[in-house]
Amino acid sequence: MSSELINQPMQTTVDPSRQVNGGVPNRRNQHDEVAMQQDVNDEYVKPVLAELVGMFAFVFIGAGSIVVNGLPANTTGLLGIALAHGLVLAIMICIFGATSGGHFNPAVTIGLCVTRHITPLKALLYIVAQLVGGTLGGLLLRAIFPTAVWQATHLGTPALAPGLSFGTGILIEAVLTFFLLLAVFGTAVDPRAPKIGGFGIGFTVLFDILAGGALTGAAMNPAIAFGPALAGGFWQNQLVYWIGPIIGGIIAALLYEFFILPARNRATAS
């Protein structure tokens, strides 16, 4: 082997993308990756987690008040149950509204998706998180209360009053949810809305339960029916609490979006 080849200096190839001015490594790609990850966290991870935690609290406190009402010598009553649902929802919206919008209800999410205030992908993730959160709340209630206690109230799963038909149940849930979505749009979505946090929405849940709780349980929320049902195994008339709230929610959302909200304020999410 010739000495010229032995003594030839080794040539290395340097990726131009890894160099900037005098051989300093390029940090731009790394910075872009970090920024992208942060965007994903802010746009999806944090809001989805907020929906899960908020729905967990909603079911644990709301359905929990129904289970407690079944205890001997308890005087919670319908008013106490309505207050528990309305107040916990109002507080959860105040806590997580800035992060996720504070939906905590598939009917609310679907109504906002139909009117393009939220993208279909994000809506799907929200609904999954809401169902998981509601189920976790139901499972915790099942673990806390004696079997005889939670079985007597079906773990807080909403149910139709004796003699109330499937169709009438759907109608009642649709009307109650219609009022709820009007409150969502009128107090939270509309930029002209009064700054009252989640209390306009929470108090709507409260008076809806006072009016319809003895008839259908006034769920107005597929997740608040699904979570305890899955945890406790009570599935009677479950479709009432999906069909009614979704129909009522969509009608209210479309009404507010296209007939009440000024055209300049309409959403353009895609």
Structure description:
The protein is mainly α and 270 residues long. It contains 10 helices and no strands. The protein is globular.
Question: Topology, pairings included?
Answer:
Blueprint: H1 3-6, H2 28-69, H3 77-100, H4 106-114, H5 120-144, H6 147-152, H7 166-189, H8 199-216, H9 222-232, H10 240-260
Helix pairs in contact: 2-3, 2-5, 2-9, 3-8, 4-5, 4-10, 5-9, 7-8, 7-10
List keywords for this structure.
mainly alpha, Glycerol uptake facilitator protein, 68% helix, disordered N terminus
Strand percentage, roughly?
under 5%
- Report the count of strand segments: 0
Give the helices and strands as they follow along the chain.
HHHHHHHHHH
Q: In terms of structural class, how would the helical and strand content be classed?
A: mainly alpha
Main CATH class:
Mainly Alpha
CATH fold node name = Glycerol uptake facilitator protein
Specify the CATH architecture: Up-down Bundle
Number of helices: 10
Q: Work out the helicity level.
A: 55-70%
Mean pLDDT: 90
In the residues, how many domains can be counted?
1
Largest sheet: none
Low-confidence stretches: 1-10
Using the alpha-carbon principal axes, give the shape.
Answer: globular
Distance between the termini: 68 Å
Give the C-alpha Rg.
Answer: 26 Å
Q: What is the assigned CATH homologous superfamily?
A: Glycerol uptake facilitator protein
